[in-house]
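During the reporting period the student researcher (J.K.) took over the structure-prediction task from the postdoctoral fellow and processed the backlog of single-chain submissions. One of the processed entries is reproduced below for the supervisory committee.
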Amino acid sequence: MTFDVIKSLHIIFVVSWFAGLFYIVRLFIYHTEAFSKEELEQSILVKQFTIMEKKLWWIITTPAMVLTVIFGVWMLCLNAAYYFSSPWMLLKLGFVILLLIYHFICQKIMFDLFKGKHVWSSTGLRIWNEVATLLLVIIVFLVVLKNSMNWIYGTIGFFGVAVSLTLAIKLYKVLREKSK
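J.K. obtained the following structure tokens:
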């Protein structure tokens, strides 16, 4: 396999992984909100969300994560001297580790929901969902801009996006409460 084929497969599985991460937390939100429904509706919804979460997690999200890591490590091995001497790559790998931690925290949330434990509120899960968005933005900018990125503006921009997302979630919650 050529390097470009390996890189293409890596990108395809990154996209699949993120799609799964974005959707699984959305399912967690609905699953959590289902616990506040009447008993019959709750029973039906919780059962359905459990099925959906299991299939999404074990058929798409986790296999995509594993393949992302395999193809990423393969690329690193093919050009280790360059990648491990590049500050942008070391920083990217740090954020990838955070993304892996995010993945396994999502898995823990899912297992808790299967046990009927809903520790997170739907608002907390909405904010949690944006963590994956922030990691995606950071990783993509690091890869695309590499060494040309001005880190001061990048850091300010990152926190600006984080604050904007938090405010948007709070505004959504206020508007949602008013519409009830």
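The committee noted the following: The chain has six helices and no strands.
J.K. will present the remaining backlog at the next meeting.
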